């Protein structure tokens, strides 16, 4: 009986819509965002960048990330996306660095999002 219950639970999990699935913080399992909020920026969801200190990050772009909170002032220095300034974002629960929010400096984003979250992919757990 338990075996069938386990299979049924797995099947229910596998059939969750993208809207119902969640992406969580690898450090504390706090819900950060959902696959449904993935967006392309500069024609791609994921990007690899190095900061001025040589640390390399692979980020994914999301339209929403309620599990994050801003943790710095706005900066346009060393931006990875032309026309955007950024703020550091941390997990609301454990306060670990999870990525950045990018905010367009222009009044008309001309097809680009006004703002988006660039989240560090290896700090997230996907469904």
Describe this structure in words.
With 127 residues, this protein is mostly beta strands. The chain has one domain (18-125): Peptide methionine sulfoxide reductase (Metal Binding Protein, Guanine Nucleotide Exchange Factor, Chain A), CATH 2.170.150.20. Helices cover 10% and strands 35% of the residues. The chain is built from one helix and nine strands; from the N terminus they run αβββββββββ. It has one helix spanning 2-14; strands at residues 23-25, 31-33, 46-50, 56-62, 68-70, 84-91, 97-104, 115-120, 124-125. The strands form two sheets. It has a six-stranded antiparallel beta sheet, with no helix packed on it. A three-stranded antiparallel beta sheet has the order 2-1-9, with no helix packed on it. A hairpin with a 5-residue loop joins strand 6 and strand 7. The longest helix has 13 residues, at 2-14. The model is unreliable at 1-10 (pLDDT under 50).
Which key phrases capture this entry?
127 residues; 6-stranded antiparallel β-sheet; 3-stranded antiparallel β-sheet; 9 strands; disordered N terminus
């Amino acid at each position: 009986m338990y075996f069938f219950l386990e299979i049924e639970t797995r099947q229910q999990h596998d059939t969750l819509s993208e809207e119902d699935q969640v992406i969580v913080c690898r450090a504390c399992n706090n819900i950060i965002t959902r696959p449904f909020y993935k967006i392309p920026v500069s024609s791609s969801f994921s990007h690899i960048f190095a900061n001025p200190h040589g640390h390399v990050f692979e980020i994914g772009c999301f339209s929403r990330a309620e599990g994050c909170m801003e943790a710095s002032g706005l900066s346009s220095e060393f931006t990875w996306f032309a026309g955007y300034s950024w703020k550091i974002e941390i997990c609301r629960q454990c306060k670990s660095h999870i990525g950045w929010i990018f905010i367009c400096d222009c009044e008309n984003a001309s097809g680009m999002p006004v703002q988006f979250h660039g989240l560090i992919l290896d700090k997230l757990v996907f469904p």
